From TrEMBL:
This is Serine hydrolase domain-containing protein. It comes from Streptomyces aureoversilis. It comes from the Bacteria. GO terms for molecular function: hydrolase activity. Residues 1-31 form the signal peptide.
Length: 407
């Protein structure tokens, strides 16, 4: 679910302890790692090392450039056995799911089956009502760029009770329907009038998934597989639904369970039923598959120009990034603009981004979920796309959106 943590990604980094419990053209594969690639990606490797130095258990990354691919890692997939992270690891990519969902909705618009300016009420009659909501004034576009005002189900007492802290172990194998998840969010009034503000809300994309099913007659995940996963040959990308397990190889997902003021205790949160996330954060993938997806997307292989331009038209967020339709845009210190998404779920923190031409991509995954968004995280992008990492102690604004299913 993303990509910004239950009460905001934690600003305090606590050392790891032994408490850890246990219809488009196919994109061709990139050539193997080119000579000199290790030197070219030295700053990226330094950033990987820095994440582990900041007390994360392990991290792996893969970069894709016209010269070939490069992969690097630091730390462990399993701190007990000392098994190392690799770029082949499968991981829960959280809110990176949002880019897939937005792409399908934009494809449906290109096919004339809906418009971004359709109201939520016209597509899902009666689903969002009461508590101050007027679904007739909320558009699909506002759902996709988080200007709808619909309250985030992650920021509710019910979510905290059932999926954070001790509640995670009691409820992680529960099955939730999209309707139940939406009801959890809209029990609380809107954050602002539609179009009058910005706030990251996972509920927006659960509704987006419901719209896909209403329009196509098929679950959102099946449409993503038919329209994106299979045409691009993303063989390591799945939407597991109610299956709590991860395909091999995969790291242990270490979590502090998003409790306020967490202590040193770290838990194994690898398994849970991702119906809790659904269209806001269900996808399981690898760094290679996600690089291929975003590369194809940015190169216009999944969307016509009109829809791709709409996706990449961003709004201000008050954070250090702007937000399009299911996509995050960062302007890095060297002036390079990159597009992609982050993902945070229990035991997993991921980032994926690439240049506007889709020729230079980076995806990485940390098998821990308590890192704050400060230079150790952003250094992955700075290192890969700018060739340098921050040395200062400056802090970036914490991710306003993050709950365990966000950004």
């Amino acid at each position: 679910m993303s990509q910004h943590v239950s009460k905001v990604l934690r600003a305090t980094l606590v050392a790891l302890t032994a408490t850890a419990v246990a219809g488009t053209a196919v994109v061709p594969a990139v050539a193997a790692t080119a000579p000199g690639a290790d030197k070219a990606h030295a700053a990226t490797q330094e950033a990987l090392n820095g994440l582990v130095a900041a007390d994360m258990p392990g991290v792996a990354a893969e970069a894709r450039t016209p010269k070939g691919t490069w992969s690097g890692s630091a730390g462990y997939a399993d701190t007990a056995t000392k098994r190392k992270r690799t770029a082949a690891d499968h991981f829960r990519a959280g809110s990176i799911t949002k880019s897939f969902v937005a792409t399908v909705l934009l494809q449906l618009e290109a096919e004339g089956k809906l418009s971004l300016d359709d109201s939520l009420e016209s597509r899902l009659p009666g689903v969002v009502k009461g508590n101050g909501y007027d679904a007739g004034k909320i558009t699909i576009r506002q759902l996709l760029n988080h200007t709808s005002g619909v309250h985030d189900m992650v920021y509710t007492p019910e979510w905290d009770k059932e999926m954070n802290g001790p509640g995670f172990f009691e409820h992680r194998y529960d099955i939730k329907t999209p309707e139940q998840i939406v009801a959890m969010g809209i029990k609380y009034g809107p954050d602002f009038e539609p179009g009058k503000g910005w706030r990251y809300s996972n509920t927006n994309f659960v509704l987006g998934g419901m719209i896909i099913e209403k329009v196509t007659g098929k679950p959102y995940a099946r449409e993503v597989e038919r329209r994106i996963v299979k045409p691009l040959g993303l063989k390591e990308t799945t939407f597991p639904g109610t299956d709590p397990k991860l395909p091999a190889p995969h790291p242990v997902g270490y979590s502090k369970l998003y409790v306020p003021n967490p202590g040193p205790e770290i838990h194994d949160a690898t398994e849970y039923r991702p119906s809790w996330s659904g269209a806001t954060g269900e996808v399981v993938s690898t760094s290679g598959d996600l690089n291929r997806f975003y590369s194809a997307l940015l190169q216009g292989k999944l969307l016509p120009k009109k829809q791709l331009d709409a996706m990449l038209t961003t709004v201000e967020t008050g954070e250090h990034y702007t937000y399009g339709l299911g996509i995050i845009s960062r302007k890095l210190s060297c002036g390079v603009q990159v597009y992609g998404h982050d993902g945070v779920v229990w035991g997993s923190l991921s980032g994926s981004a690439g240049t506007r031409d889709g020729k230079h991509m980076l995806t990485f995954n940390i098998n821990g979920d308590w890192l704050n968004e400060s230079p150790p995280f952003e250094n992955m992008f700075e290192g890969e796309f700018c060739g340098a990492i921050a040395k200062s102690e400056k802090k970036l604004a914490p991710r306003a959106e993050l709950g365990p299913v966000n950004h």
